[in-house]
Amino acid sequence: MTHLKVDLCIIGAGSAGLSVAAGAAQMGASVVLIERAEMGGDCLNAGCIPSKALIAAAKHAYQPQHGAAFGVEDTTPQVDFAAVKDHVRRVIDTIAPVDSQERFEGLGCTVIRADARFVSRTEVQAGDTIITARRFVIATGSGPFVPPIPGLDGVMVHTNETIFDLRDKPDHLIIIGGGPIGMEMAQAHRRLGCAVTVIEGAKAMGKDDPELAAIVLDRLRGEGVAIMEDAKAERVSGGEGGAITVHTSKGRVTGTHLLVAVGRAVKVDGMGLDVAGVDHDRKGITVDANLRSVSNKAVYAAGDVAGGLQFTHVAGYHGGQLVRALMFGLPARARTDHIPWATYTDPELAHVGLTEAEARKRHGDKLTVVRSEYAHNDRANTEGRTTGLIKVMVVGGRPVGASIVGHLAGELIGMWAMAIANKLKMTAISNTVLPYPTYMELNKRAAGAYFSPKLFESATVKRVVGLVQRWLP
């Protein structure tokens, strides 16, 4: 048995773990990084990267069929589904070196590829190595949650961990789960030539602003995705030729392939957390505002396993906060009010801060909601991307939330995320000069919509302007 004594032991080489490891090692700390599976974690290998690569391929399949409005004859492309998956793999392989074991060893980390479990409050065993560390960071992330639906264990079930390796095009893909992952995969597979049915036990995209979600769902239905809402999956059965039938409260659906996308489960099993005295539940490690375990002060958590928002960019943000805390002894102070997220359907849907419903509940009559329609944006009109809108929730001249549905919503939300993170006022947006014509002008138009009533509908302003006009030389 090998024994190592280091400043920092990190369990999990996903976004959070890699961020902490890179920062700490380059600042001179001794670091052990433990990963039992693939470097880069879920995002690189089975999440953000492969899903966006698949969505990109699907867009190329969709666009040739919709050129007539631009004077370009519609054509039906031939989709080579296996070649699409080759594209997905190439993208992963291109990015992988940034997250590789070799790179992190080059930065000075000791990388151990094995399962990790605590054997005491200050020791972790990984393979045949015992690591004693002053501080530990648990960044094991999450994996797909497969619900205990009767009959599910009798058929082939895909999750995000397997769907991107599927090289034969599904004739009819059934998706259980109408959240962001389910809807992204539904539209991508439909555009690549598959029949798709989504089964959702409540409302599809139910965590998003309902007005904006309806725009996305209308588009998906218009493209041929069947969406069953308020349809609980009660049992699953298999049939001849590999057919799969999902029996729901609203009838049954038979297809050739099944994808389950109902949520995520944090990875904490088998880690010996009880031995280490680390409090945890099904949501993850119980931490304080500084991402520190409430029961073992030598242990921190970051990313999905910290029990909060489950996004790669949140994991990276946590990693940066922990570098600050662990290297300089400063408080982490992780926030959530400025965290944006996006669903990469077409149109995209993005959000940061409070939704309209949340803002009305919290701020009441102090709230002003301003809107900016894609149809009024010149760039959107040149490209035929006029479906969509921006809603900004404003209190006391400061944005407290923004929701966007439309082309490039995931890019446009960045301006509002910056404004909320830095407590900027709406004047910071309205004073910004932007190149013309761009979609970014939608944000400025929204800021202008906040000030327009104050300028153009105010009797006081009109009186002042009248006086100035009479006396101005």
TrEMBL record:
In its UniProt record, a GO molecular function of this protein is:
oxidoreductase activity, acting on a sulfur group of donors, NAD(P) as acceptor
Q: Which UniProt keywords apply?
A: Disulfide bond, FAD, Flavoprotein, NAD, NADP, Nucleotide-binding, Oxidoreductase, Pyruvate, Redox-active center
In terms of SUPFAM superfamilies, this protein maps to: FAD/NAD(P)-binding domain (SSF51905), FAD/NAD-linked reductases, dimerisation (C-terminal) domain (SSF55424)
Please name one Pfam family that this protein belongs to: Pyr_redox_2
Q: Where does FAD bind?
A: 52, 140-142, 304
Every copy of the FAD/NAD(P)-binding domain together lies at 7-319
Domain Pyridine nucleotide-disulphide oxidoreductase dimerisation: residue ranges: 339-444
Q: List the disulfide bonds.
A: 43-48
Which annotated residues bind NAD(+)? 177-184, 200, 263
The cofactor binding remark recorded in the entry reads: Binds 1 FAD per subunit.
Q: Which family does it belong to?
A: Belongs to the class-I pyridine nucleotide-disulfide oxidoreductase family.
- Name listed for the protein in its UniProt record: Pyruvate/2-oxoglutarate dehydrogenase complex, dihydrolipoamide dehydrogenase (E3) component
Q: What is the lineage of its organism?
A: Bacteria, Pseudomonadati, Pseudomonadota, Alphaproteobacteria, Rhodobacterales
